[in-house]
Amino acid sequence: MAEQLCSFQLAGMTFGVPAVEVQEIMRAQPITRVPLADPATAGLMNLRGQIVTTIDLRARLGLVPRPAEEKPINVVIRTSEGLFSLLVDAIGDVVVPAREILELIPENVPTHFRDLIAGAYKLPDRLLFVLLLDRLVTH
Amino acid sequence: MGADEEILQEFLVEGRENLDRLERELVGFEKNGASEQSIGAIFRTVHTIKGTAGFFGFERLQSLAHVAENLLSKIRDGQLALSSDIVSAQLAVVDGCRLMMDWVEQTGTDGTDDYVALKARLEALTVGAAPEVVAAPAPVVAVEAPPPPPVVVAAPVVAVEPTPAPVQPNVVLPPGQEGERADTTVRVDVHLLDKLMDLAGELVLARNQLLKFATTSRDVGLGQSTQRLDLITSELQEHVMKTRMQPIGGVWNKLPRVVRDLSGELGKHVRLELEGKDTGLDRSVLEAIKDPLTHIVRNAIDHGIEKPAARIAKGKLGEGLLRLRAMHEGGHVLLEITDDGAGIDADRVRAKAVERGILTPDRAAKLTTHEAQALVFAPGFSTAEKVTNVSGRGVGMDVVKTNIERIGGAVEIESVAGQGTTIRIKIPLTLAIIPALIVAAAGERYALPQSGVLELVRIDPASGRKVELVDNTPVYRLRGELLPLVYLPQLLGTGGATGTTVVVLQNEGRPFGLVVDTAQDTEEIVVKPIGKRLRDLVTYSGATILGDGRVALILDVRGIATRTGLGLMKRREAEVTHQESTAGDRYLIASVGADRRVAVSLDSVARLEEFAVEKIERAAGREVMQYRAQMLPLIRLGDALGAMPAEPGDTVHVIVYSAGERDLGLVVEGILDVIEQRAQISTTVAQHGLLGSAVLDGKVTDVVDVAAIAANAGYATGAM
After folding, report:
1. Would you call A44 an interface residue with chain B, using a CB distance cutoff of 8 Å?
2. Could you list the residue range(s) of the whole structural domain that residue B14 is in?
3. Which residue in B30, B177, B281, B424 is deepest, having the highest Cβ count within 10 Å?
4. Which fold has domain A5-137?
5. Residues of chain A numbered 45-64 and touching chain B (CB < 8 Å)
6. Dihedral sign for Cα atoms in the order B536, B539, B540, B541
7. What is the pLDDT of residues B419-431, one digit of tens each?
8. The complex's ipTM?
9. Do residues B118 and B148 lie in contact, with contact meaning Cβ atoms separated by under 8 Å?
10. Which pTM was predicted?
């Protein structure tokens, strides 16, 4: 059975994570900054009493920063390290890439990006990059 | 954890519960006399232990329980009367079974002790005393049969073993106290309790929000409901907290074994007395005091209690007494560890402190006896004449103190030379909810655990008292003492050297001031873990959710001091006094690899530790270790110096260095000695990672350049 992917937009690109790992999607939440943390850590948020580390995916993937006036969306995911929230620009559809083959990312793509991507699906109009969640949330 | 292991865990938990009950019942015999009902209960308990031990193939355990059961069956059948000899023999069985269960837990086997003597004693009691008492108690016992087994015994593990207990279904017995007690206990998963605790914490936050809202509302009904909710919530939280409490006896259970082994090893006789076993403590606190407690007990036996001959010469009993007491006091638990050993000789402590470069002779002479005795908590202090396996590396009591202070506790020592020592530890009931001061700096709020806060001071430029700079370090004159200041926004990189409120904090006995914009309320906060991703940040110990639902970071006082280098001040000061009082440098001699002997300067050595090899983990291709809630990067000194690899052992020795922000561990094969001498380091032998070589203790020894080795391994070192 083909995997369902929850897709979202980041700096004009499309990314996906396995839909089964997504707990919920939320609008921008108040976040407490964590000074001295790595730049990809946006801060901590209160998810109904649970403290969840929020990761700025643009920063994590080394993309250009989000314009200040744009409010990010939280994609709360389950990982082996617990819950995390990923900040993305906009949410897309749930995609079931049926016949497409997962292509490996070419070697000339920068490592900091390539290391976090399982591969890319060639959708009719664009590429969909599948993120490696467990690697994403560790350093 | 596999299914077998789960069943084994179940066996251990249940077996220990059974032993606890057995012990209470046996002691009850001596106080209240035996009823046929309670003898029946004891008999069945022993029988259950025997049965389950047999099921798991623990033959030693089974055999001991079997002999004990034989004796008990005679009593149950009225052929033998209960005597205090029998009770103590049965208590010895309880102890033996406990020890064997400890073995089972730790090694998977029931140990190596066959308890031959104890079994012979039991057998003698079974046979020997029989004829004397045939007549008297027999008729009473014959009337009633033993009651049906209590509920606890009928757990799944037990059911596997066919139990030939002589249960007579037609006999109805009045519900005994024992049965009721068993009925009212339920075993609950710890995670469920943690979850309940979390939810209770959330409820407290929701209540706080509601309370804020209610004060601005004019609705009388809302006010009343809120007030009731307020009371109920507090009560609920308190009770949920109580469910997480475990008796300190759980930790103490390990001590008889420690005492037995250690006193045997040292040729001493020690009697261990435990008072207040049922004193309840939060699981997290229990976990945190386990090691310090064991260390203190080991110390008391090693340094405190004398050998039998020495004790008798002083007019004491040959057997030393070690007494542990636990009791509740206010929101705290008091622990007292008392020995009737040699006590602490204040003059010897003073002399040692001077010799070790901790104090100048002048300052040492001025100390009161009590102050001098407290020096045993000073880092790098040890009065042991030689380094032993047990203690005496001078890295013990300061760690005990630090660990206890880290959980918001306090420790003090009282000793009378020749008569003994008492160590008093005061610890909070729980770590999950702590009082904290909420401070604001550069637009963010942070929580500071109240236990580290000494006082609040406002910097008022108008009063003429202002911040001064000493060699670029801001200080403040507080009652004539110079208080080093740390600007929180500057430290965290969120702002500059601003703020008008100084929170005076205490780190390892030394005050420093943390400058913030404002100090707000004191709140009871629920401590939550900060997650693996951020765990490396030493400045925070966790996070919490404030009354308005926002997350606030909990600042770690020690981490802040370490990050600013305040932790190093003490060492600098020690070096100064050291130069005044002693003539040489101090080196630690270690064996490295298969055959090398090297020296490292003791100046930035924080601690010496020994760990099980399994504790070493790998992160990002490097060896690290979880140490004091931080990641301790490890460097194998042998590999770094290209020594022949040594045979891997079960444990590793780690020299912990303080390197500015973070600690660094050097793995060596063994710690040989600490020597103090003026050494001429010759640099003719140029090898990377070495400062050179010197003649130390009569042998040519390579002196290690720790900073170079750390840098070579990619670890920046600020202050080595």
Report:
1. yes
2. 3-183
3. B281
4. OB fold (Dihydrolipoamide Acetyltransferase, E2P) (2.40.50)
5. 45-46, 48-51, 53
6. positive
7. 889 999 988 877 7
8. 0.91
9. no
10. 0.52
